[in-house]
Each structure stands twice: as C-alpha cells, then as structure tokens.
Design a protein that fits this description.
Layout (H helix, E strand, L loop, with lengths): L1 H18 L3 E6 L5 H20 L4 E6 L2 E3 L14 E3 L4 H11 L1
Parallel strand pairs: 1-2, 3-4
Helix pairs in contact: 1-2, 2-3
Length: 101
C-alpha cells in the first residue's frame, strides 16, 4: 500500500509540475485480499477526486478488470484480478459505493 501511494503521488506531482499534462491511473489491481484491494481502490479514487477539486491534473481512474457476475472470469489463472458487477462480495459493494458517492 505504501509503495502504491508513493507511486501515485509521484506520478501525479510530475504530471502537474513538470509535464503540465493530465494523468490517468489505469489497469491497476491484482490478486489481493479484499481489505487490501478496497484500500487501494479507495486511495486511487479519493486522490483523483482531491485533484479534481483543486484543479489538478489527475484526470481519471480505471481499475483492471470489470466482470459481469453472469459470466465467469476470463482469466486462465482462476480469476481474482477483477471486480464483479453487480457486486458479488461486500468489498465489491463497498468499492461500488465509493465510486458512485
């Protein structure tokens, strides 16, 4: 989590101060325990929102991968890399609520 925070903040700072260009955090995630996954997504979305509120360059967040609950994961390694919609776990519901609010 600490690495992820530092990585996001460093790239956001470079985009704003050095490049003066927008930055989008995309295709991030991994096989993580529910609470770790939720914390990473929460930090990403809250960082992007804070940047938007102050006129910063953090333009968007797109996590890896969104599955529909009617379909099996497309991952040959057994799934676990993505989020399901509609939510199939309490963590996915919490992430949904975080994104929508």
């Amino acid at each position: 989590m600490e690495f992820f925070k530092q990585w996001v903040e460093a790239h956001q700072e470079a985009a704003e101060e050095e490049l003066q260009m927008p930055v989008i955090l995309e295709e991030f995630g991994g096989k993580l325990e529910d609470n770790k996954r939720y914390n990473i997504y929460k930090f990403a979305f809250e960082s992007q929102l804070a940047s938007a509120k102050r006129g910063g360059s953090f333009g968007g967040v797109m996590f890896w991968i969104l599955y529909h609950s009617d379909y099996a994961a497309l991952d040959h390694y057994g799934g676990g890399y993505g989020m399901y919609y509609p939510a199939t776990t309490s963590t996915e519901q919490a992430v949904h609520d975080l994104v929508i609010s």
